[in-house]
Write a structure and sequence with these properties.
It is a single chain. It contains four helices and eight strands, in the order H-H-E-E-E-E-E-H-H-E-E-E. It is an alpha+beta fold and about 220 residues long. The protein has a single domain, classed as Methylpurine-DNA glycosylase (MPG) (3-methyladenine DNA Glycosylase, Chain A), CATH 3.10.300. Strands 1, 2, 3, 4, 5, 6, 7 and 8 form an eight-stranded antiparallel β-sheet that branches. A hairpin with a 2-residue loop joins strand 1 and strand 2 (about 40-50).
Length: about 220
């Protein structure tokens, strides 16, 4: 049986492009998390681009480390990081191997496995909030560092894969500054590299960067 086109995995060449081309093109694509209890699928509605060596906001800006090594590998793989001592966030690696750019998956609509997502996100007030924000998305899909390096382009059995879905028309795509990324030094306000689906209720609220105050 041949799967419908919207259920076909995105090919690796999709990700082997500049990150600013890949990021908006990910909107409307479907991320599938395979679990022992069944699949959970999320239609992506918000993403952010991070351009490696050209981007002070990127984890790869200062070079390769054990934490960000996946970003320097083959495009189409999943980069997962742990932040604030409590949350995981996930990215999809883009561009040629060795260059280390990636797209942060910020938000989406759970379109399959809603009950499973609810069990992982019991604090969500409604289904629109299940994956509304990068940490919430990762939690709803039960993603942690154990999945760092997963190949999302394979059609075989894999815990994470990205499907063709239904791309969002260009006129419905919006862009603006990245959430929580510094201005001039961190390319937050300077580069509007956050992309989202216009008027979609699952898109997370924008929060500007707030500098940390030094203790006197």
């Amino acid at each position: 049986m041949i799967a419908p086109r919207d259920r076909m995995p995105l090919p690796r060449k999709f990700f082997d492009r500049p990150v600013l081309d890949v990021a908006p093109d990910l909107l409307g694509r479907v991320l599938v998390r395979t679990t022992p209890d069944g699949p959970i699928s999320v239609r992506l509605t918000e993403v952010e681009a991070y351009d490696g060596p050209n981007d002070p906001g990127s984890h790869a800006y200062r070079g390769r480390t054990p934490r960000n090594a996946v970003m320097f590998g083959e495009p189409g793989h999943v980069y997962v990081y742990f932040t604030y001592g409590m949350w995981h966030c996930m990215n999809l690696v883009c561009g040629p191997e060795g260059r280390a750019s990636a797209v942060l998956l910020r938000a989406g609509e759970v379109v399959e496995g809603v009950e499973l997502a609810r069990k992982r996100r019991p604090s969500a007030r409604n289904d629109r909030e299940l994956a509304k924000g990068p940490a919430r998305l990762a939690t709803a899909l039960e993603v942690d560092r154990a999945l760092d390096g997963t190949d999302a382009c394979t059609a075989g059995e894999t815990p994470l894969r990205i499907l063709t879905g239904t791309p969002v028309p260009a006129e419905q795509v919006r862009s603006g500054p990245r959430t929580g990324v510094a201005g001039e030094g961190g390319n937050g306000e300077v580069h509007p590299w956050r992309y989202w689906v216009a008027d979609d209720p699952t898109v997370s609220p924008y929060r500007a960067h707030v500098p940390r105050r030094r203790r006197s």
